[in-house]
Design goal:
alpha/beta, 18% helix, five-stranded mixed β-sheet, 9 strands, 209 residues, 3 helices, Beta Polymerase, domain 2, single chain
């Protein structure tokens, strides 16, 4: 029978957090525990060294996910969040760095190959640059897309639409056209009983003929 490791107890989590904070030293800005997870904020320029240390010396072997967060009121409005998993400890840790539109974050594709696609997603959605990523291009939107959809100041509506043009063999932007003519719809539910005969119910009154 296979026995799965149980999640670390709160006291164990606190001890792990203290050990990681001590190991990161000057690379660390802050450390805290939230919702049973350790959250480490490190200096942007030290992110590669910090994650290498966590991987090689503290057994956080897997980069599970990367995410971006936008705080428009901050001087460095973006956070890049790295979610690491230790298979041997059955424990996760979150590592954060802050940046802005112009300052690149060092790539961690040198540590995990899957970081290439994850960094592309953060770049596509937020516009965060990653220094050293040799394939930093859009991954979820098209190549002609303008702007970054997950920024808080990205407009939700507009007057432009995009479509793929078979003639030009690329995505094109065009003014929005409302070609639908005005139509009046009756949304009365037939289950509540309509005041008129519904299509297909013509024979309901007199039965089959």
């Amino acid at each position: 029978m296979t026995v799965l490791h149980s999640a670390p107890k709160p006291s164990v989590i606190e001890g792990i957090g203290q050990a990681l904070a001590s190991a990161l030293g000057d690379m660390l800005i802050s450390a805290k525990e939230e919702h049973g997870e350790i959250v480490l904020t490190v200096k942007r320029e030290s992110i590669e060294d910090a994650l290498r240390l966590l991987r090689d010396e503290h057994a956080y072997q897997q980069l599970m996910e990367m995410a971006g967060v936008d705080y428009p009121d901050r001087a460095e409005r973006f956070e890049v969040v790295y979610m690491l998993l230790s298979l041997t400890k059955n424990h996760r840790v979150m590592v954060k760095v802050s940046t802005d539109e112009a300052m690149p974050v060092p790539t961690v594709t040198t540590l995990w190959p899957n970081a290439g696609w994850l960094e592309r997603e953060v770049f596509d959605m937020y516009g965060v640059l990653f220094a050293g990523n040799t394939d930093l291009r859009r991954i979820l939107t098209d190549y002609g897309f303008e702007g970054h959809p997950f920024r808080k100041d990205f407009p939700l509506t507009g007057y432009q639409e995009l479509r793929y043009s078979e003639e030009e063999k690329r995505v094109v932007y065009e003014p929005v056209k409302l070609a639908q003519d005005f139509r009046s719809f009756d949304f009365m539910s037939p289950w509540e009983g309509a005041e008129y005969i519904l299509p297909g119910d013509e024979k309901a009154e007199g039965g089959e003929k």
